[in-house]
Amino acid sequence: MDSSTDNEIKIANYFDNKMDAAEQEAFLQKVRGDNLLSRQFENELLIRSFLYTDDNYSSLDDCIETSGMIRDKGVYKISRNLRNYLGVAALLILVILSVHLLLQKKSKVITVAQIQNHEDTTRSEEKAKHLFADNNSTEAEYKKFYRKYTSWSDPVEVSKYYNDYVNNNYLEVINSEDSGFAEKGLTKDENYLMAYVQLYKGLCYLAEAKPEESINRFSTVLKISEKGGTPYYEAEWYSALAWLKAGNRNKSVEILEKIQYSRSPHLKDAVQLLHELNTK
Fold first, then answer.
1. How far apart are CA 275 and CA 253, in angstroms?
2. Is the pLDDT confidence value at 45 over 80?
3. What's CA 125's distance to the chain center, in Å?
4. What is the pTM of this model?
5. What pLDDT was estimated at residue 173?
6. CB–CB of 236/201 below 8 Å?
7. Could you tell me which of 216, 227, 217 has the C-alpha nearest to residue 258?
8. CA-CA-CA-CA torsion for 137, 139, 143, 149, nearest 10 degrees?
9. What's the pLDDT at 125?
10. Where residue 242 falls among pLDDT bands split at 50, 70, 90?
11. pLDDT category, 132, cuts 50, 70, 90?
């Protein structure tokens, strides 16, 4: 075994407390007088100062104090401080990297949100443009085919409602009672008369540019009136126009397709309107 290897074993035994007091004293005396052993001792001391935890430093300090090697102790303290500084620096680097990654992630989230908001806004604008264009189209068709309802054969029992409608007294009709014909001594079937009242109210709502309310009234007429009668056919036709007024082309087409296979007095207009809606 060469002297260098032998020195390494002795140095390891010294630092690992495998020597008794007499052996330690003899070893330190040899360290002070042997340049090679002294350098190996210092090197081992520096290595251990970097690798040891704080709990091990007390044993290293004891080794330095015992050895009496002031120069080595100074180097050891420098290495120990350097290790501490490096630890602090490493911690700061970790903190900075963590903050950087967090900000970068947040930035990406914000960017995605901004893109999503932009896309949503664009879609909303395109939808609004399309809806506006569609509404303009259906409004134009509504104006072309809408004509005010007139009749010379409606029941005399509901003539007041009809006259108010014809004379543009729409609110009079809208705010009037919906029932009570039997109490008034009227002999005709109440549902039959009620169908006409609801028809007039629907027509008044439509004239007042309230298509949703008019559709509800026309729907009631279609439920309570006899299919094929005047109230039914009129409610059916004006429902198609009301849906156009509301901007719903599909619902209007659905009703018009039913009218074209019926004996409605509005058959010719329904077929023409259906054709125009399907070709645009």
1. 9
2. no
3. 17
4. 0.53
5. 94
6. no
7. 227
8. 130
9. 52
10. very high
11. very low
- Taking CA 222 as the corner, what is the angle to CA 232 and CA 145, rounded to the nearest 5 degrees? 55
Model pLDDT for residues 220-239, shown as the tens digit of each residue:
999 999 998 999 999 999 99
Q: How many CB atoms lie within 10 A of CB 176?
A: 14
Token digits of residue 54: 């704080």
List the single range of 144-148, 181-185, 273-277 with lowest mean pLDDT: 181-185
Please give the angle made by the CA atoms of 39, 40 and 44, to the nearest 5 degrees.
120
CA 242 to chain centre: 35
Q: Which two tokens stand for residue 199?
A: 């028809």
Place of tokens 């967090």: 102
Alpha-carbon distance of 248 to 141, in angstroms, equals: 12
Lookup: tokens for 210: 């309230």
Determine the residue type at 184: K
In 3D space, the residue among 35, 1, 29, 2 whose CA is nearest the CA of residue 14 turns out to be 29
